[in-house]
Design a protein that fits this description.
single chain; alpha/beta; 13 strands; two-stranded antiparallel ribbon; 338 residues; elongated; 5-stranded mixed beta sheet
Length: 338
């Protein structure tokens, strides 16, 4: 009897591979309206991705109060890192300007993602970065976004400089004062510390010694940090403590780097006298400025002198000044500073 053998084919249901999709959202301000907009973007994209059966929801990467002209945004960098690790197949974002406002940053990162086979979809412009004309359109639109950012920046600068011309104060966070209802008001506890700093300096203390003294007394700065030499220097030179204002001491170089530069004559400055209640009287403030000039001149002369093994290593425990080297008849000694 001949046996007949039939091959039974197996049928296996192959599930479709779902695309791993994430979204990126950003707002450049901490204003309530902006944060509401960010929250709305997060909710919208979370729902959009999860309701698509061919997509697998990875998450929404959102940066609060971060400028789009720079790439140093924590959530943006985390998104790029997750893309590099293969966790994401496609990124959705509201528009070119939400992804970045810097043409170079947009093109650099889109190209990197393109090399990894990752598509970036710009919803408002309806552009897929993996499409044939994607990069051309992105180059044009990102240039517009960067120019729009420059225009906004220039408008902000004009508004601030116009306030300076009118003698209006724009910065309100510094030791000794608070800014309430457009008025600069003294904070008594902080004002006492400011007075101590000026008194210490006129008593012969150096800025290092003053900072050390304040740390030893457990007196915090306005933001709760430890006192440093640079903080004491700024306070001693700050005309606000004498009740005056010098406006536009610094300026932002450009809207891309946002580097703050010291104003050395590039832009006009405005001096407002008797603007608010002083913490330090005018006579004391001027004495401190004269003493700063005297010490600066003395240190400049001293810096041209020959250095020795103990130069600038022996300091007075009270004022923080260096002991001075003196040659006697038969030996060399170091004297306490005057």
């Amino acid at each position: 009897m001949q046996r007949e053998i039939l091959k039974v084919r197996s049928y296996q249901n192959v599930l479709p591979i779902r695309k791993k999709v994430a979204a990126y959202a950003r707002v450049s301000s901490e204003k309530e309206s902006m944060l509401h907009s960010l929250s709305a973007q997060i909710s919208y994209y979370s729902e959009l991705i999860q309701n698509n059966p061919s997509w697998r929801y990875v998450g929404v990467y959102a940066d609060e109060a971060k400028t789009g002209t720079k790439g140093e945004r924590p959530e943006f960098q985390r998104l790029l890192e997750d893309c590099k690790q293969g966790k994401i197949d496609m990124v959705i974002t509201k528009s070119v300007s939400r992804f970045a406002r810097n043409t170079l940053i947009i093109l650099e990162n889109v190209r990197k993602l393109k090399e990894q086979g990752i598509d970036v979809y710009f919803e408002k412009e309806n552009i897929h970065s993996l499409s044939e004309d994607g990069e051309l359109m992105l180059t044009l639109l990102s240039s517009f976004a960067q120019e729009e950012s420059r225009s906004v920046s220039e408008n902000c600068k004009w508004r601030i400089r116009n306030r300076f011309k009118k003698g209006c104060f724009t910065h309100s966070y510094f030791n000794g004062y608070s800014f309430e209802n457009n008025q600069i008001k003294i904070i008594p506890e902080e004002a006492e510390t400011i007075k101590k700093i000026f008194d210490y300096y006129l008593s012969g203390f150096g800025v290092n010694a003053i900072a050390r003294k304040l740390r030893e007394d457990n007196i915090p700065t306005k933001d709760g940090c430890m006192w440093q030499e640079s903080t004491v220097k700024r306070i001693l030179r700050n005309e606000k403590y004498a009740g005056n204002l010098l406006l536009q001491k610094s300026f932002v170089a450009d809207h891309i780097s946002k580097k703050r530069c010291k104003n050395r004559g590039e832009l006009p400055m405005y001096y407002v006298e008797n603007n608010h209640e002083p913490i330090i009287d005018a006579d004391t403030f001027q004495k401190v400025q004269d003493e700063i000039s005297r010490r600066t001149k003395h240190n400049r002369v001293s810096s041209n002198q020959v250095t020795y093994p103990f130069s600038k290593k022996i300091k007075c425990e009270i004022c923080g000044k260096n002991y001075r080297r003196k040659i006697a008849k038969i030996k060399t000694k170091y004297e306490k500073p005057v």
